Amino acid sequence: MYDYNRDAHAIYRDSFAIIRREADLSRIPPDLKALAVRVAHACGMPDVIDDLRFSAGAGTAGREALAAGAPILCDGRMSAEGITRARLPADNEVICTLSDPQVPALAKQIGNTRTAAALELWRPRLEGALVVIGNAPTALFRLLELIDEGVAKPALILGFPVGFVGAAESKEALAADSRGVPFVTLQGRRGGSAMAAAAVNALGQDH
Amino acid sequence: MYDYNRDAHAIYRDSFAIIRREADLSRIPPDLKALAVRVAHACGMPDVIDDLRFSAGAGTAGREALAAGAPILCDGRMSAEGITRARLPADNEVICTLSDPQVPALAKQIGNTRTAAALELWRPRLEGALVVIGNAPTALFRLLELIDEGVAKPALILGFPVGFVGAAESKEALAADSRGVPFVTLQGRRGGSAMAAAAVNALGQDH
Q: A161, exposed or middle or buried, with CB in 10 Å at 0-12, 13-18, 19+?
């Protein structure tokens, strides 16, 4: 039998303590410190905190939106699955439209990926929503285009697409001009659904 | 409107080409090269390939198990969600027992986390299965304990728990003595459900 920590509460506590010891949180504002720690926890890399980019007040904007009952719009089902429902303050709806049967035809119609096309179905829910991009750069680019086309603005954009083609560029585009929408993003190639879900969970409430 | 790649097929192709250009795949055997590339793709980090540890023939063992209809046992719902069903060669069952109502009581009974306790419900399905640990170090430790207790052995262990407490240690334990079970793992703190699901997807078939 191995000697290992079997207590989930202690594992969380010790993990967060290690991150706080190893990471430089000095430039992270108070309303995003918990988010920064949870994002690092999700990927096992304290140094991702150095790559976080955000607008002032983004954490507060996200918490207020959740408290007001904002829906959470996710580009992928893995992010949606990673959001801990018990942490959501207003039984907030978690929505992923990627599997909607209209999406393949929409993708052909707009000449984009299915993940980007799935955002067409967000239009009626975008106003004041929490937008979570944990997978596809095309979804983040398309979101910025939709805002330029005049859709109602979300309350917060959590931009964590991952990968080698467009991920760094789409997050750079968000950080360079978020169209006045509060945002948190991670510059570079790193990202993913676990970090995106962890960011949402950090804006929820402790049990 | 941004200038970005909107073609999912081209994005995959270009991403894999970048990884093959940047990563050192020379020590990766032929039956694991696709897996290595997909794991790097899932996290945006080609250098994870340097941290892969595996037994000889692990990729072939996984492909043969899937072709024979092996169930896929996942420690978390995010990993289960990330497995592309269309890539599975035998309509293989994807099983995650974490939400089973028996799990909280089992966790108290065995004095371990719920994720580790959920493995108790794997016992009847473990023989010849693909085991996917994409989240909890306690699940990987517990799996090794179950094998020592005499459960029927799985066909392959994909060990990708992530984090700061027990992740590196559990993967080191697997690589040091997998009890004769074929395995692929990632040494260190890095890992997670996206990499674990990508490893499974690499062992499936192309469309």
A: buried
Residue B164 DSSP class? S
How far is B59 from B182, CA to CA, in rounded Å?
8
Q: How far apart are CA A172 and CA B5, in angstroms?
A: 15
Identify the pLDDT of residue A207.
58
State the DSSP string of B134-152. Answer: SS-HHHHHHHHHHHHHTPP
* pLDDT reported for residue B1: 77
What burial letters (b/e) apply to A148-158, b meaning 16+ CB within 10 Å? eeebebbbbbb
Residue A118: CB partners within 8 Å, gap ≥ 6? A75, A96, A97, A98, A100, A103, A106, A139
Could you report the per-residue pLDDT of B44-85, keeping only the tens digit for each? 999 999 999 999 999 999 999 999 999 999 999 999 999 999
B1 neighbourhood in chain A, CB within 8 Å: 145, 148
Residues of chain B predicted below pLDDT 50: none
Q: Which residues lie closer than 8 Å to A71 by C-beta, 6 or more apart?
A: A92, A93, A94, A95, A125, A129, A130
**B15 to A165: CB separation less than 8 angstroms, yes or no:** yes
- How many residues make up chain A in this entry? 207
With a threshold of 0.85, tell me whether the complex ipTM lies above it: yes
Helix (H, G, I), strand (E, B) or coil at A184: strand
Tell whether the model's pLDDT for residue A206 goes beyond 90: no
- 3-state secondary structure at position A67: helix
Order the strands of the A52-54 sheet from edge to edge: A52-54, A183-186, A156-159, A130-133, A72-74, A94-95
Provide the pLDDT for residue A95: 98
Q: Structure tokens of A83?
A: 């959001």
**Active site (annotated) includes residue A207:** no
If one counts every other C-beta atom within 10 angstroms of the C-beta of residue A1, the result is 8
**How high is the pLDDT of residue A118?**
98
| E strand or H helix that includes residue A157 | strand A156-159
Mean pLDDT over residues A72-93, rounded?
Answer: 98
Catalytically annotated residue among A38, A41, A63, A153: A41
Chain A segment 9-28 residues within 8 A of B by beta carbon are 11, 14-15, 18-19
The two tokens of residue B17 are: 């080409």
Beta carbons of A157 and A174 less than 8 angstroms apart: yes
Of residues B18, B77, B192, nearest to A81 (C-beta): B77
This model's pTM is above 0.95 = yes
